[in-house]
Backbone:
């Protein structure tokens, strides 16, 4: 009922469990699936994995009661590009659906914070001058985000691209980044497309992980 009231969203089906969800995606080919996790027969993680494997054009946003690590990270690893808890309001759900349709991640602020904490614990932030942990990468001498040392940035990132990446790691949307940098959203999108291509990341979640691996974060500003 809530989804049917949201602008720009047309509900084409409702599934009782993960197995039915996979079948409905095959039948209707929706742009986005809102996926629960705890379901009979096939759970949400496995259903997400099957849907993303068979229909990579269909994005999955998890909408669940659970935000613990054992629920969050398997769902993201299975291919979910959004993750909301069930206290999310209609506006937050609509924004997550729009975000994943545009190629961004649709993560609630609480989930973004948990993801950042987990990444920070697994990969301590290091100055960019130390380079990646392993493997060669191209680097162009450039200043880092505002206030950081003028270290060489990894993978040929420009200073502005690193600045945008740091703001992504803070959880800012494209519109918020545009306001912060006093540029247009279209310019921000261009920077994001460029930095995604240079760093070989597919989405904002991977970009956040990359930022923390290479020390390109707001903690340096």
Residues:
């Amino acid at each position: 009922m809530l989804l049917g009231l949201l602008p720009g969203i047309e509900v084409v089906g409702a599934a009782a469990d993960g197995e039915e969800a996979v079948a409905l995606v095959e039948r209707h080919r929706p742009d986005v699936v809102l996926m629960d996790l705890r379901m009979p027969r096939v759970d949400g993680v496995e259903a997400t994995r099957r849907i993303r494997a068979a229909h990579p054009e269909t994005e999955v946003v998890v909408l669940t009661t659970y935000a613990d690590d054992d629920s969050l990270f398997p769902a993201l690893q299975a291919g979910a590009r959004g993750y909301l808890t069930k206290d999310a309001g209609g506006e937050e759900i609509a924004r997550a659906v729009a975000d994943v349709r545009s190629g961004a991640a649709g993560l609630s602020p609480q989930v973004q914070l948990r993801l950042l904490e987990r990444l920070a614990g697994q990969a301590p932030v290091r100055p960019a001058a130390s380079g990646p942990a392993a493997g060669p990468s191209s680097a162009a001498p450039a200043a880092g985000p505002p206030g950081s040392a003028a270290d060489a940035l990894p993978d040929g990132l420009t200073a502005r691209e690193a600045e945008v990446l740091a703001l992504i790691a803070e959880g800012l949307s494209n519109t918020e980044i545009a306001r912060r940098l006093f540029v247009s959203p279209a310019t921000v999108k261009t920077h994001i497309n460029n930095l995604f291509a240079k760093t070989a990341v597919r989405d904002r979640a991977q970009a956040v992980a990359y930022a923390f691996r290479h020390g390109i974060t707001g903690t340096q500003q």
Remarks:
- Residues 123-150 have pLDDT under 50 and may be disordered.
- DSSP finds ten helices and six strands in the chain.
- The domain at 2-116 is CATH 3.40.50.2300 (Rossmann fold).
- The two ends are 44 Å apart (CA to CA).
